[in-house]
Amino acid sequence: MSTQTNDYSGYYGAYLSEYLAKTNAQDTRINYILAFIIICIMLALLGVSKPIFAKTPPPNEQIIAQVVNEEVYTNEQFRQNIKEKYKGLNVTFPNSGVAHIKKVKYINSKPIKINIIEINTKVNKNLRIKPQTAGVKLNSKSSVRSIAKKQNAIIAINGGFFKPQTGVPLGALMIDGEVLSGPIYNRVGIAIFEKGNKTTFKMQNIDFDIKAITKNNTVKIDNINQPRMLATHTLMYTSAWSKISPPPPKNGYNALIVNNNIVKISANAIEIPQGATVIQGSKELISKLGKDREIHIDIQLQDELKNAKHIIGAGPYLVKNSQIYTDYKEQKLQAISGKNPRSAIGYKDDGTFIFVTVDGREQSSVGMTLFELASLMKDLGVEQAMNFDGGSSSALYLNGKIVNTAVNKEGIRVSNALTVIELQNDELQISGL
User: Fold this and answer.
1) How far is Cα 323 from Cα 378, in angstroms, rounded to an integer?
2) What's the pTM?
3) What is the pLDDT of residues 145-175, one digit of tens each?
4) Which of 50, 79, 194, 286 is an S-S bond match for 54, by CB 3.0 to 4.6 Å?
5) Stretch 316-324: mean pLDDT, rounded?
6) In this model, does residue 362 exceed pLDDT 50?
7) Is the pLDDT of residue 51 over 60?
8) What is the pLDDT of residues 277-308, one digit of tens each?
9) Whole-number Å distance between alpha carbons of 202 and 301
10) Residue 374 in contact with residue 401, Cβ under 8 Å?
């Protein structure tokens, strides 16, 4: 028995030794495979990550570097696109996101000198487009250069129509949310919206809804700070108009409103203190309002224009939804449809905004009709465009100089202008609050 037992133990011992040897070999191979996989993973991680001992910049420095790189790329792309668009023309880039183009176009073998300024508010978020008046009161006039310099603007173009004798705007004007004057004949205007550092635009026919509201009466106000067009109109004048209101129409009254109270009624012109308002209408109407004494003025913009920061009107349309559209008859502007010096603006939804002047009334540049101007604006690729006051008023300012050939080298004194201001970094932070 003992001999047989010893044989079995030898057999099983040999088998166990052989099994263990094979198992050790298998474990060794598995260990090698696992080690190889781990090394591959580590090498891959090292390949995509920064060196272990590299200095990592603070998060704010990383963000700044990224923004700078994006701005450089975007501005270079803007320049390249401009060069391609205006290939062979005189093109300069006076500021980031700003291009100035000079060209001569021929129509019926007649030369026309054109100045174009393209800006892009997405390339340079420091650019702000804003209408400006010639003076504190609306009955003021000044050169485009003077208006620009007063605001430290880098670009300015003469704006809407105005009464030549006084400088009072003849059209819609709103600056920093304050309605300064109302539209005439429901003419087109451009609204400028600012949200943080984003600027957008809306072009359409302007119509303000103005009401005078008392305890017992609600009265429609036909216009604000505009010359009287009909004897039956009820008008409103603010202290922005002038120091003195116009006289009321025949058989009419002026009512002076101070702190939401009617404090004086007169058949003559009334002095308008700062912050006060005058309502001008028929004797019956003003007397009815005067009985209630307390009065509130409500000014509402169209739904599409609510939250606009600025509005400036002129007309007619030139391009609407990327198509030529000159509604000068509807806007009662037939008298200006012939060849003249021109000023115009247009924009695209990608942040592009274009200023254009056309020289005229001279042998070297004969000017353009409204239809020719509309064709030019469409060729420039704008989606919406409108005509500004032209003729002797046309003037385009860029970094200290009038760049078009204007009357008297400066253009005549005008009521208002559309300007571009380039904010500095501290101003940009404040504006974004």
Assistant:
1) 7
2) 0.81
3) 999 999 999 999 999 999 999 999 999 999 9
4) 50
5) 98
6) yes
7) no
8) 999 999 999 999 999 989 999 999 999 999 99
9) 13
10) no
Question: How many CB atoms are closer than 10 A to CB 371?
Answer: 13
What is the arithmetic mean of pLDDT over 372-384? 98
Which of the four pLDDT bands, split at 50, 70 and 90, describes residue 29? low
Neighbour count for residue 378 (Cβ, 10 Å): 18
Average pLDDT, the chain: 87
Three-state DSSP string of the chain: CHHHHHHHHHHHHHHHHHHHHHHHHHHHHHHHHHHHHHHHHHHHHHHHCCCCCCCCCCHHHHHHHHHHHHHHHHHHHHHHHHHHHCCCCEEEEEECCEEEEEEEEEECCEEEEEEEEEEECCCCCCEEEEEEECCCCCCCCECHHHHHHHCCCCEEEECCCECCCCCCECCCEEECCEEEECCCCCCEEEEEEEECCEEEEEEEECCCEEEEECCCCEEEECEECCCCCCCCCCEEEECCCCCECCCCCCCEEEEEEECCEEEEEECCCCECCCCCEEEEEEHHHHHHHHHHCECEEEEECCHHHCCCCEEEECCCEEEECCEECCCCCCCCCHHHCCCECEEEEEECCCCEEEEEEECCCECCECCECHHHHHHHHHHCCCCEEEECCCHHHCCEEECCEECCCCHHHCCCCECEEEEEEECCHHHHHHHCC
96 with 352: CB under 8 angstroms?
no
Residues 322 and 194 in one domain: yes
pLDDT, average across residues 347-361: 96
Same domain, 163 and 286: no
Residues whose CB is less than 8 angstroms from the CB of residue 294 and which lie 6 or more positions away in sequence, other chains included: 214, 215, 260, 261
Question: How does pLDDT run across 211-260, given as a tens digit for each residue?
Answer: 999 999 999 999 999 999 888 999 999 999 999 999 999 899 999 999 99
Residue 67 domain flag: no
The amino acid that residue 276 corresponds to is A
Give residue 404's domain range: 77-206+305-431
Q: Could you tell me if 40 and 91 lie in one domain?
A: no
